[in-house]
Specification:
Shape: flat
Helix content: 40-55%
Largest sheet: 6 strands, mixed
Number of helices: 25
Radius of gyration: 26 Å
CATH architecture of one domain: Orthogonal Bundle
Number of strands: 10
CATH topology of one domain: Neutral Protease, domain 2
Distance between the termini: 32 Å
């Protein structure tokens, strides 16, 4: 286990969906699924990761060890943060370039395209990691560590300022793993060179950068914005004076209270022009602190489970990855071959169910998920999807819930008590009955607690509180939604909600002071709103959705 951070000095010397029929025909010709089946794949499960690899048990165990190290690194640096996503993380460890081509063929479709050594694909039911084991270099998995950092930050923060989000991702993206220690915040010479050759972004402007800002370009991380964000975070994390004053912690506290990061920065850092000069001077210094996490003995091998992966499962795994990686048109031939190879394998039908869902083929999707359950699928995902699909069949306009939807969703929550979407769906199932209104609110609260960044969950909770005449709590939620709103539509939703709450309170007060003989036949104003599909975060997104 990690024993804490130790610091050292390091001297740095500056230096639209395609036609399905045509696409599938081409994919069948170009993508050799049998190549996946021909390899001997193995699965290694550590306490927090699942590794699937064709490089043998020793290499698969090594990958599992490394990811457990990365997790320990985050836990050591931020002991109060959640470091385990609710959804499983599945690591596809490819032994060489030829295997990687089978999972990321798009990187070889265009001549001169960058061939990444690793990538992180987040999704709702599982996160996929793909990495190539024979890659060389000082830090070939920088992009992977960067995106994994984003995944962990999303677990803990709602609308984290962009400079801080990207700065932390770059800070931990430059980590290096060793047998006895992990180095965090190692210096990025490219960032330092750029900062010393360019005019820095004024601190106020840096704080206000959003996804629409000209300073921000997700596809070009060799930019002053990324470099300066990294430098500010490096200073806050590792500078001796900044650590002593707990500047990062104090900034987050002030920002959480006010919702205004410029005001929070002035309160924490003082005069921002002077703070900008401090950062500029920090970038020009000749030595930097680097965080060291000393690693004790890694978990014993007996804590890992190992099993062989059948050929049908290996092919299905590739098809499922395509679906999650937004290459949905390439998933069908792999999944069809997996079905022919092992028609009674639960995972094949689970993968087919998710594939059909991505094509909005709900009836087929539910049929496959139900078949996966009948064949013995033990995971939470088929239960959740089946319950979610039954809810969709019920509609969201107060109609009775399809028989079994509530109990199925309760089972999904039991199998994975950290999975927010299941609580969200369960809250809506409960909301259809007057007898389970309290359970509906409690499930909605749990969903918001588990995923505070999902605005749809907060909206549904606010409406449930309003429907149950818990006006003060509903107002607090609406005010939080308004404070977190990032566009006109979200602000309009929050303001409308506040109006509904005010109307409901006025009517309730009027009713309380009006004699019952006068009230006869008078109904409450139409302010009670049942959350509908638009306010529901479903289990996936449409084909063509791209993650950042």
């Amino acid at each position: 286990m990690a024993t804490g951070l130790v610091y050292m000095l390091k001297i740095v010397t500056t230096r639209l969906l395609p036609s399905r029929r045509l696409t599938f025909a081409v994919a069948l010709l170009l993508l050799p699924h049998s190549a996946v089946a021909a390899d001997n794949w193995i699965e290694v499960r550590s306490p927090h990761f699942t590794v699937q690899s064709n490089a043998g048990e020793k290499e698969a165990r090594k990958v599992a060890d490394q990811f457990e190290q990365i997790r320990n690194m985050f836990h050591s640096a931020f002991s109060s943060m959640r470091v385990d996503p609710a959804q499983p993380i599945v690591i596809l460890a490819a032994k060489n370039e030829n295997t990687l081509k089978l999972f990321l063929p798009e990187e070889w479709e265009v001549k001169g395209h960058i061939h990444h050594a690793g990538m992180y694909q987040p999704a709702q039911d599982k996160d996929y990691v793909v990495l190539r084991l024979d890659t060389e270099g000082d830090n070939p998995f920088h992009t992977l560590y960067h995106e994994y950092t984003h995944a962990l930050l999303r677990l803990n923060f709602s609308n984290l300022p962009l400079w801080l989000n990207e700065g932390l991702a770059e800070f931990f993206g430059n980590s290096t793993l060793g047998d006895k220690e992990i180095k965090t915040g190692t210096i990025d010479p490219g960032h330092l060179y750029l900062l010393n050759q360019s005019k820095l972004i004024p601190i106020v402007a840096l704080l206000e950068v959003d996804h629409n800002s000209p300073y921000y370009n997700e596809s070009n991380r060799a930019s002053v914005f990324y470099a300066e964000s990294w430098a500010v975070v490096h200073y806050l994390m590792l500078d001796e004076d900044a650590r002593k004053k707990e500047l990062l912690k104090n900034f987050l506290t002030a920002w959480t209270k006010s919702g205004n990061q410029v005001d929070a920065a002035r309160e924490t850092f003082g005069d921002l022009k002077q703070f900008g000069k401090r950062i500029e001077s920090y970038c020009k210094q000749g030595s930097f602190r680097v965080g060291l996490i000393k690693e004790g003995q890694m978990a014993a091998d007996k804590t890992y489970t190992v099993r062989g992966v059948s050929s049908g499962e290996a092919i299905a795994l590739r098809g499922d990855f395509f679906t999650h990686h937004n290459r949905v048109e390439q998933a069908q031939p792999a999944l069809e071959e997996a079905l022919k190879t092992e028609p009674n394998l639960p995972f094949v039908h689970e993968a087919l169910g998710f594939y059909h869902y991505r094509w909005h083929e709900i009836e087929e999707a539910d049929k496959e998920m139900l078949l996966a359950i009948k064949l013995g699928a033990a995971g939470f995902a088929p239960q959740y999807f089946h319950g979610f699909f039954l809810m969709q069949e019920s509609g969201y306009e107060g109609e009775p819930v399809m028989p079994g939807a509530t109990s199925i969703l309760e089972k999904a929550v039991h199998l994975n008590p950290e999975f927010a979407p299941a609580y969200e769906a369960l809250s809506q199932a409960y909301s259809h009955s007057p007898e389970t209104q309290k359970q509906a609110v409690n499930a909605a609260i749990k969903a918001v607690q588990l995923d505070p960044g999902q605005l749809a969950y907060a909206i549904n909770l606010a409406f449930l509180l309003l429907n149950n005449s818990r006006f003060s709590e509903a107002r607090i939620m609406a005010q939080r939604i308004l404070a977190a709103a990032t566009n006109k539509g979200e602000k309009e939703v929050a303001n409308n909600m506040l109006q509904h709450i005010q109307q409901a309170e006025e009517w309730a007060a009027q009713r309380a002071t009006t004699p019952s003989s006068v009230q006869g036949g008078r109904d409450s104003p139409n302010v009670t709103i049942t959350p509908g599909p638009a306010g529901t975060a479903g289990p996936g997104t449409r084909p063509g959705w791209q993650s950042n």
